[in-house]
Specification:
This protein has a 4-stranded parallel beta sheet with strand order 1-2-3-4, sandwiched between helices. It contains 6 helices and 4 strands. The relative contact order is 0.15.
Length: about 180
């Protein structure tokens, strides 16, 4: 929840007026519980969506996640009717324990931000994966590669943030960014 990618994405979303909730999955940091191989973590993401819906009942929900958080968040958000859009950053698609295959049939609008040289899913591997998407899922997917970016977008967080902002403005004409203090 405190890594620089999650922080920068949250900052970018908040600048556009989106309510933002960052949280640690069970067993991470000071959170209770222990790692549950994705099952309990999906429940954590669902509880976060329930909280956001209760706090902001009239706003559409968007799910953004980084790395393992993208694996969980995109899965949960893709199935939840309250979530209208998805953003995944640094998808670790080469990790055999994390199957992103569910994205092949996910028809929700989604942005995938990936470092060009991400050690867990660089440009060629991610392009090959996205080529397996259904026609409908592919039509709703925008992939942006951050040149020379690694898994954590080291030295390229501003480029990642700009790509995220550009996608939001394209998706929501008239959306404006509040000035940063």
């Amino acid at each position: 929840m405190h890594n620089k990618v999650v922080y920068q994405a949250a900052k970018s979303l908040h600048a556009f007026g989106f309510p933002v909730l960052r949280f640690n999955f069970r067993g991470v940091g000071a959170s209770e519980g222990q790692y549950d191989h994705g099952q309990g973590e999906q429940a954590d993401a669902g509880a976060a969506l329930d909280y956001l819906r209760a706090e902001f009942p009239d706003l559409p929900l968007l799910v953004a996640g980084f790395s393992f958080g993208a694996w969980i968040g995109l899965r949960v958000g893709g199935l939840d009717h309250r979530v209208l859009e998805l953003i995944g950053m640094g998808l670790p698609i080469v990790d055999p324990k994390l199957d992103f295959g569910y994205l092949r049939a996910c028809h929700k609008p989604k942005l995938i931000l990936q470092g060009e040289i991400d050690q867990y899913g660089g440009k060629e591997k991610l392009q090959a994966f996205v080529a397996t998407f259904s026609k409908e899922a592919a039509a709703e997917t925008r992939v942006v590669f951050v040149p020379r970016g690694d898994h954590f977008f080291t030295g390229h967080l501003e480029q990642m943030s700009l790509a995220l902002s550009k996608w939001l403005v394209e998706r929501h004409p008239g959306l404006s960014c509040a000035p940063q203090l």
